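ok here's the first one, seq then struct tokens
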Amino acid sequence: MTADLVQMPLLTDAQWTRLTAFGTPQDVAVGDYVFRSGDADYDLILIETGAVEVVRDSLGWFDEAVLAHMGPRSFVGELGLLNGQGAFLSARVTEAGRMLRVTRQELRRLMSEDDELCDVILRALWARRESLRHGPAAYTLKFVGPASSSQFLALRRFAERLDLVHTAVEMNSGDLGTLSGHGITQDDLPVAFIQGEPLLRATPGLVAERLGLSYQAHADEVVDLVVIGGGPAGLAAAIYGASEGLSTVLLDAVAPGGQAAATSRIENFLGFPFGVSGSDLIGQASLQALKFGVRVYAPCEAVALTPVGRELDVTLSDGRLIRTRTAIVTAGAAYRRLDLDRWTEFERAGIYYAATQLELRQVRESPVVVVGGANSAGQAALYLAANGCPVRLVVRGDDLGGRMSSYLVDRLHEDPRVEVHTGSRVVGLEGGSALERVRIDSVGEVDARGLFCFIGAEPATTWLASLDRDEEGFLRTGTDVAVQTLDQWQALGREPLPFETSTPRVFAAGDVRRGSMKRVAAAVGEGSSAVASVHRALAG
């Protein structure tokens, strides 16, 4: 941690007095630990007198590293205090004194009651997290696996979207390096080293469980709102709900962001005249959700939604239940695939559904094919070309401007690194253990290290068979609801509210909703608007 004024803010007398009012005092001696790596629950530490050093514990192959020294009128902690992550660093007393503990519950109360302190603390915790991502602390969570492995890529995407402090080591296929000396085989990859301890055949779900990021129910808890899906609509719904006083839980089967996080650059989003990457936009929204007290859990997949009296049970894939008064389904859609031989095989080595830095590392400066005719395909083609990849954009329709914004069409035609093939289809895939060539019906066989597929998505609603859906699976809402059980609405004395599905107190927003505009800004508007109907339902 660099001791700058964001990470180590200088608090005024008034600010320090207000902050200490939330803490419980404790006298400490030299050598005491105020928290240790591995603690599932720990506190924000306020140093009234004395001093503390923040350390990354020894990890077997690395000695202990001292990351920061902190003295009077400072506070010790980082972003994990807000997202529920267990401690991955330790804080050791180097000078005896008096300190105060602010529990996570009290910290959330502070942030909801004192806007000035909330901003100071949030900026500091976020800045510390960003600093830690690029130093010795990154080795507390280390992923090792083949560069071409889809499982390894899934771990990296999970960690990046949750802004976890981590590092990743890519291996050549078939080369175990030093891992072979630890009894680790190819079948054990990818491996996640958590505080130096190996987790074999690691998945995002297993890592989340170890880090304390999986859902943990509180005894007899009933929350006001569960938002299912962490794309732009879901994040907006969760932020507005929590900021307006609703106890809010946000679930996502992968990690917050949805398809928006896979967008390399959004040029026409309000307030960003120079464009914004999907990952940056989602990262700031996720931080905003933590600011307002949203409890974010990922990967955390909902598999059933069942009315129980005037409440709802959300069943998770591991069997755990969340009891809630209302729910907003913002589950988005699952990527469509081309019906081609070896598609599933190459999904692990050359086929991608996003174009971000993670995917770019796999194909940098190599020829690629992008499939699709909407904005996401155009943005991906330009991003890949700008980073040295010769790009062939394959569009089924004859008019590139049919579904793509004109500014993208103009840039694609002007870019000499992008070759556009309209009225064309991909008809074959070739390669050994990884994708090497693609066959296009209008061109023939072309070299391709990667195929980027942006051909739309199917609504993720198969688990919601009891809700009224159209023939394509999109959820009907409000006045569009065609199937109604008369008695359930008569008992409530009303019709479905805007964004409300055929089941009372279950709402839908974003790409999953019939009639929605498939744009990031529209999804944000729908998510926030759905919360207004949630309030009306709760008041009824």
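and now the second one, same deal
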Amino acid sequence: MTALTLSTAGAATLRADALVVGLARGSKGPVLAPGAEAVDKAFGGKLAAVLETLGATGAEGELIKVPAAGGLKAPVVIAVGLGAVPDSDDAYDSEILRRAAGAAARALGGAKKAGFALPASTVEDAGAVAEGALLGAYAFTAYQGGENKLAPKPVKANGPKLPLAEVTVLGAKPRDKAFKAAAARAVAVAEEINRARDLINTPPNDLFPESFAAVATAAGKEHGIKVQVLDEKALVKGGYGGLIGVGQGAAHGPRLVKLAYTHPKAEKTLALVGKGITYDSGGISLKPAGHNETMKCDMSGAAAVFATVVAASRLGLRVNVTGWLALAENMPGGNATRPGDVLRMYSGKTVEVLNTDAEGRLVLADALTRASEEAPDAIVDVATLTGAMVLALGNRTFGIMANDDAFRTTIHEIAEEVGEASWPMPLPADLRKGMDSPTADIANMGERMGGGLVAGLFLKEFVGEGIAWAHLDIAGPAFHEGAPYGYTPKGGTGSSVRTLIRLAERTADGDLG
């Protein structure tokens, strides 16, 4: 993990591989952002003009490298675009700073140290810059490099480019209690998001329900989290028909993992439920070629829940947070569930399976019922659940559904606050009839149009009475297949982790919504 330090040292005297400054789009050309004063002085006050000559405009996401001037200890200056200059009374938006720092950190892969001379004079700005840089410095390298046994003489292959080793946020106050807390939070949040990213990126031949459960168990021991794992035998005995039904066609059996972080002074309990399909072939309703190559990411919801519980423990939040990881592989083995089969769920309800590729809602249903038994103050489930949500909201925005409008609004506001794009979605009652079954209590499929909402209505059936519940469909932003941008890498993103952590913090503060 990239190291983080705060420093009051001047940018001109910092020994580093590069200095990062902000460049905004002004009415008469690009303008340097606060924090870059010492760097600009080394350029004789003409850094903005030099950058403009090179084509810089200050547009958000723009990035230009220039050789450093003689008065600087660092050899390179990187200018990253911040977009329009804010109004005089306003600071730069935290998400803009987060993305800018992330873009710069990505560009510095392989470097040992970089100084970030971006706006960081307030606690909020310093935290955003730190978090963005740490997220942008991510790289998944576990399967790269190693020995080339095909060479005439076995040689070690060229290793991958490692992420930036150290981030120094300039202009912050390392001895100030609030700044230190913001830095510690940034490290905990970024490390846990990157833990989730690692899990999402791990190939499914290495990450399956049992191995995922082992990772969770090890983390629980490290961070004082109580972990309970139900294996196939326990799931059969307990009547978890959804988890068993989805997982029975795979060589690797399903698991239900409970992670419980408790605080002695907590007054509220938040339950988080994550879909953890470690590989989704679609089962007997097999996915066609072109739709299954990235299905290792179908456990992104469970990864987000796992990361959030660990982060809550690391931050010592005054709230009880229980995570439920519903883990299974969905494979078309000889014992796999068939379209037309009826499963008896943990709740006692029966479900007619019309499509085995609508499996996520089946494992979540069992976990939601089990979570409801403990009567938490609120439940949030997270899942890469439907392609319909991607069609509705695109690849960067997750949908929010809930049984309580105020709770849905709270989560939407939190997501916007932390910089995660989301949108509130309805649960139209008229769509419920489409899931009526002549054979069982409910079918796992309904009307095709509005499929993401149908899935939410199905999950709602398994939430305990009187419990505030929300469903986050992160199918779009969970796995990024395009070019990296900002602090978002190619591959697993850790979508919803920041929203869930902030929700836990708000709950700890008595502001559940």
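notes on #2: The chain has a mean pLDDT of 96. The CA atoms of residues 213 and 257 lie 6 Å apart.
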